[in-house]
Design a protein that fits this description.
Blueprint lengths: L4 E2 L14 E3 L2 H12 L2 E7 L6 E4 L6 E7 L2 E4 L2 H11 L3 H4 L4 H14 L4 E7 L2 E7 L7 H10 L5 E7 L4 E6 L5 E2 L5 E10 L7 E9 L5 E3 L9 E3 L8 H9 L3 H17 L1 E3 L2 H9 L5 H14 L5 E2 H12 L4 H15 L4
Antiparallel strand pairs: 1-5, 2-9, 3-7, 4-5, 5-6, 7-8, 9-10, 10-12, 11-12, 12-13, 13-14, 13-15, 16-17
C-alpha cells in the first residue's frame, strides 16, 4: 500500500487503495469480513466538526489530507477524499495546484459554508474509507453474509468477492438447468451486491450462467419487476428479509422467460458484416474494443455462421471474464440489456 497522499500530476496515485479479493466459500468471506470489522468504526459528525486538513507531505511535493475526529487524525483513502472534495465543491486537481496556505484556506472556507451539515464518516484501520451524507444508513457486507449463512437456502454459491466498491455473491439455483440457444447447459442464478462506501445500493439481480464457457449474463426478469434494490437510507435493513422473499418469488416464470429470451436472441441475426455490427454496437454505448473483441469471440465459437444477438452477448460476457470484478459486473449488465433489445 502507498502513503495516504496525492499529487498534482496523478491526483490519487499515492493514496491508499483497497484491493479486490475473492473467496472460495461464504464461510471464508464471512471470516474475512469479521476480521476487518474489528478495525472499523463509524462516526456521525458535521463538515466543520470533522476538522478537515490538507498540507504538504514530507517529500515537499505531494499532499496529505485527512480528518480529525475525537482528537485522532484519520488520513483519507482515495475514494473517501474524492467524496470529501465533492462535499466541499473543490476538485482535488484544483487544490493540488494551489500554494499550501491557499489550499488550507480553501478547504476551511468551503467547509465552513456547510459547517452544520451532518456527515457520516466510515473508518477502517485508522483511515477514512468513506465520507457520506448525514442521511446515509449503512448495511454492511458482514450483515448480508450472516443472513445467507443463517438462511435455509440450498443454492450453490459459485462466487464470493469484495472490491473497493462492492461485495458480490453469486448463487446458482438448484434444479434450474436448461439448454441454451447453442445447446450449452445454463442455469438461473442470483447475483447479490452491496456497497459500504456510497458506491451503489444493496441489490440483487437475475443472472444466467453458461457451464461450458462460464459466461454470466445479468438481466432483470420482467416476471418480478427487474432487480431488487434498496438504497442506503432508513429502512435499508428491512432488505435483509425482503431479499430472500424476492429470490424465492416467481422462480418458474423467471426461468421460462429466460429460455424464451435466449432462444429469441439466438434467432436474431445481426448479419455477416463486422463493420456494420461494430457501428450498431457503438450506437448502443459499447466501446470499440468491446465491439471488436466480442465479434472475434463469437466468430471463434461459431465459425462460418452469421453472428446472432446471442453470439454477441456470449462474446461480451466472455471478454468480461478478463476484467476486474466491478468492470466485469458492468459489462455483464450491459450484455443483459443488449440481449433484451429484441423484446
Amino acid at each position: 500500500m502507498g502513503k495516504n497522499v496525492y499529487t498534482a500530476a496523478r491526483a490519487f496515485a499515492r493514496m491508499k487503495r483497497d484491493e479486490a479479493e475473492e473467496f472460495e466459500s461464504m464461510e471464508q468471506l464471512g471470516a474475512h469480513l469479521e476480521q476487518k470489522a474489528e478495525t472499523q468504526a463509524d462516526y456521525t459528525t458535521t463538515l466543520i466538526g470533522s476538522r478537515p486538513s490538507i498540507e504538504r507531505a514530507d517529500d515537499g511535493v505531494a499532499w496529505s489530507a485527512g480528518l480529525t475526529i475525537n482528537d485522532k487524525r484519520y488520513p483519507f483513502r482515495e475514494h473517501a477524499f474524492s467524496q470529501f472534495s465533492s462535499a466541499i465543491g473543490i476538485p482535488a486537481s484544483m487544490l493540488t495546484r494551489c500554494p499550501e496556505v491557499l489550499a488550507r484556506d480553501n478547504v476551511m472556507f468551503f467547509a465552513t459554508l456547510g459547517a452544520t451539515d451532518k456527515r457520516f464518516v466510515r473508518t477502517e484501520g485508522g483511515d477514512v474509507r468513506a465520507f457520506l451524507g448525514g442521511g446515509y444508513t449503512a448495511i454492511d457486507h458482514k450483515e448480508i453474509v450472516e443472513s445467507f449463512l443463517r438462511s435455509d437456502m440450498d443454492w450453490d454459491v459459485n462466487f464470493a468477492g469484495v472490491t473497493p466498491k462492492r461485495m458480490f455473491i453469486l448463487a446458482i439455483e438448484p434444479d434450474s438447468k436448461f439448454e441454451g440457444p447453442d445447446g450449452s447447459e445454463m442455469s438461473h442464478c442470483t447475483l447479490v451486491g452491496n456497497s459500504e462506501t456510497g458506491e451503489g445500493s444493496f441489490f440483487a439481480q437475475d443472472l444466467w450462467y453458461d457451464y461450458i464457457c462460464q459466461n454470466r449474463i445479468i438481466w432483470g426478469a420482467k416476471a418480478r419487476g427487474g432487480q431488487f434494490r434498496k438504497i442506503h437510507r432508513a429502512g435499508v435493513k428491512e432488505g435483509l428479509t425482503e431479499l430472500f422473499q424476492w429470490i424465492n418469488s416467481d422462480r418458474q416464470r423467471v426461468v421460462a422467460e429466460a429460455k424464451e429470451a435466449l432462444q429469441r436472441a439466438g434467432r436474431d441475426s445481426l448479419g455477416g458484416d463486422d463493420e456494420r455490427i461494430v457501428a450498431y454496437m457503438r450506437n448502443r454505448g459499447f466501446a470499440l474494443w468491446q465491439a471488436k473483441d466480442s465479434i472475434a469471440s463469437a466468430r471463434s465459437r461459431w465459425p462460418n455462421k452469421e453472428i446472432t444477438r446471442f453470439g454477441i452477448v456470449s462474446g461480451l460476457t466472455d471478454i468480461a471474464q478478463r476484467l476486474p470484478m466491478d468492470d466485469r459486473y458492468e459489462l455483464e449488465r450491459a450484455a443483459g440489456d443488449f440481449l433484451m433489445a429484441t423484446s
